[in-house]
Specification:
Layout: E1 3-5, H1 6-16, E2 21-24, H2 31-37, E3 44-47, H3 51-65, E4 69-73, H4 77-81, H5 83-92, E5 96-102, H6 118-122, E6 128-131, H7 138-150, E7 156-162, H8 163-166, E8 171-173, H9 191-203, E9 207-211, H10 213-217, H11 221-231, H12 263-271, E10 274-278, H13 284-287, H14 290-294, E11 298-303, E12 317-320, H15 323-337, H16 345-354, H17 370-380, E13 386-389, H18 393-401, E14 410-412, H19 422-432, E15 438-443, H20 444-447, H21 453-459, E16 465-470, H22 505-511, E17 515-519, H23 525-539, E18 543-548, H24 575-583
Parallel strand pairs: 2-3, 2-4, 4-5, 5-7, 6-7, 9-10, 10-11, 11-12, 13-14, 13-15, 15-16, 16-18, 17-18
Antiparallel strand pairs: 1-8
Length: 584
Amino acid sequence: MARMGVMDAVVKVLEDEGVEVAFGVPGAAILPLYKALSKSRQIRHYSVRHEEGGTHAADGYARVTGKVGVNIGTSGPAGTNMITGLYTAMADSIPMICITGQAPTGVLHKEAFQAVDIVEIARPVTKWAVQVKEPAQLVWTFREAFRVAREGRPGPVLIDLPLDVQKSSLEVDFDPRRDGPLGFERPEPSPEAIREVIEMILAAERPVLMPGGGVILADASEELVELAEYLQIPVSPTYMGKGAIPEDHPLYMGIVGIQTSQRYANALFLESDLVVGIGNRWAERHTGDLDVYRGDRRFVHIDIDPRQIGRVFPPDLGVVSDAKLALRAMLETAWATTPPREPGAWVERVGELRSTLLRKTDFDDVPVKPQRVYRELNEFFDEDTVFVTAIGLYQIFSGQFQKTYKPRHYLCCGQAGPLGWEVPACLGAKLGRPEKLVVGVVGDYSFQFLVEEVAVAVQYRVPYVLVMINNAYMGLIRQGELPYEMNFAVDLGYEGPESEYGMDHVGMMEAMGALGRRVRRPEEIKGALEWAVRASEERRVPALVEIMCERETNAAMGLSIDRINEYEPVEDRLPALEAAAEGS
């Protein structure tokens, strides 16, 4: 029998569960775990500069790899600093385990230093939050934590470890060959329900498949595309489903919504008569006005979490199932029901609107228009690039203009949307997929929230590229469709020798040992991107391309998906359309 100390056994559990990377900030109340962790030859620990940054790094790592992210901190503010990251992971169904130190159990009620009930604080934003009070429970608590994080709709777990529990002299009998990971079942769909879904699709004239983030999490993109091709059904991913189908695929219909969307997608959606949602949430920024969104069309909702079905509106048919198993079952039922279908009028309609209801991106204006930035990104980077972006006007432009071709290659904190997410998430993504080029698209305000995590990447020689859309204007909340005066919003610009658009971000990068270059004209963007990719890899540090952008570019958002033309001025259309109109 292999007997060892309880904290050594905890580290063995982490290793056996496949953990290779952990983020954290050491502190007095968590040092016994760190001492045990220092003996591991498998787990690499990265000391971040802020516990929230550690959660976002673990989040980015989990999204790009499909593994469970791990973040560690001490007692008190370390745990409270993790709450934003836990909430983000909970909202986007990301498996993560956060471990906090805690004051000894005997003094938790005696004003102990940095003693806070982090379990109760974290409970609303985790799948499970637990304080371990007995050393003998440690091994199986960690086993259960990994099971909970992965099972069903994935999500975060917080484990709180009092110092006396960590320091226990108890030895346990632990053998990973015998005490392996806890298993769990993925729910399979009812055959009758799947048969009804296929019947509804075959009976519809203009059906749509709508994969959400659940298809990405289930690694079900291949099944999705195979089903769509067999039945010739257009596919409209939600924003969190970007990458589930290549955006140059003939059946790609675009993203529906009131912000991160395309005109042609909204127009096509309004013509549809059946929508089959798979692993999606019908979130508010997607649906807008529910009366308009629902209309006269029918809806099927397939989700792994039975509590999600009917949460926003009652579907015509709800199916509880893992996304991959559901799509496999749908494909097998389709094979048995109908021969492969040829593209019809509905697929032709998708191609027609995809080629006409487009927006102009080839602006030559100075300051640079954001649309031009995304045109340059699409042309310069290939389909294997992993993009990371967060929240704000630049996220909306990204959703409208940026092309994605593969699952787990577009990472975004969709539901919670914390500013600052992308900088540490780039660190986690690059550590998870070191062979990939990782590019973070950031806003100037968000960049400043957790910019200190750039220093972590410099310290550990982790290269990635940041592209900053800098309007120094808090542009999202100043959008014209928001009926409020925004005089109280901070104007981030100033007149200075280096930049009229706020602080010197290039200087900030260089002060941390990273690299930066400022761009003022659209024709300079490509050369700056070439420099950033080359210099980042050569120096093994992050490189920033800061692009000075127009302040008041409107992001063409509506309050409901039927307002597809309201924010689309005629001059914002492709010159090719004008030429075609003249030709007719």
